[in-house]
Amino acid sequence: MAKILLVEDHEEIWDFLSRRLKRRGYEVVLAHDGEEGVLKARTSRPDIILLDMNLPVLDGWSAARALKSDAETARIPIIALTAHAMSGDREKVIQAGCDDYHPKPVDFSKLLTQIGAALGTPPSP
């Protein structure tokens, strides 16, 4: 199964998501700030990144730009996780380098569909 890098600083969210993703068979690597996320993307080689946009140390916008500008990580799909759900926010995360956008609160079944689409695989039941 695919390896997911979850970059999220809120414990309730990373705990909830990592447990549910693991139950679906995904390997989950955690990072709690944008700088750690960029480093773990380079070292753990995930198949996909779930990236909170409001992170400490290095925000998700900067992390996405760094990942997409690095030849080693540029092809890894990034799904932005953000509480920003205003008109135009989806376009902003796409311009920052993310491949898709998922507003918080997380709709887990929709997120699974987005992960499957990004990986080119159907979601697991």
Architecture overview:
The protein is of the alpha/beta class and 125 residues long. It has one domain: Response regulator (Rossmann fold), CATH 3.40.50.2300. The protein is 43% helix and 19% strand. The chain has five helices and five strands. The chain has helices at 11-23, 34-44, 60-69, 89-96, 108-119, and strands spanning 3-7, 27-31, 48-52, 78-82, 100-103. The chain has a five-stranded parallel β-sheet with strand order 2-1-3-4-5, with helices on both faces. Helix 4 (89-96) links the parallel strand 4 and strand 5. Helix 2 (34-44) runs parallel beside helix 3. The longest helix is centred in the first third of the chain and has 13 residues, at 11-23.
Strand order of the largest sheet: 2-1-3-4-5
Task: Please state the structural category.
Answer: alpha/beta
Main beta-sheet strand count, sense and barrel state: 5 strands, parallel
Characterize the overall form. globular
Can you say what the CATH homologous superfamily is?
Response regulator
Give the termini separation. 13 Å
Order of helices and strands: EHEHEHEHEH
Rg over C-alpha atoms, rounded to the nearest angstrom: 13 Å
Total number of distinct structural domains: 1
Separate helix tally: 5
Instruction: Give the total of beta strands.
Output: 5
Helix content: 40-55%
Per the CATH scheme, the topology name is Rossmann fold
Mean pLDDT: 92
Low-confidence stretches at least 5 residues in length (pLDDT < 50)?
A: none
The CATH architecture assignment turns out to be 3-Layer(aba) Sandwich
Classified by CATH, the class is Alpha Beta
Task: Give the percentage of residues in beta strands.
Answer: 15-25%
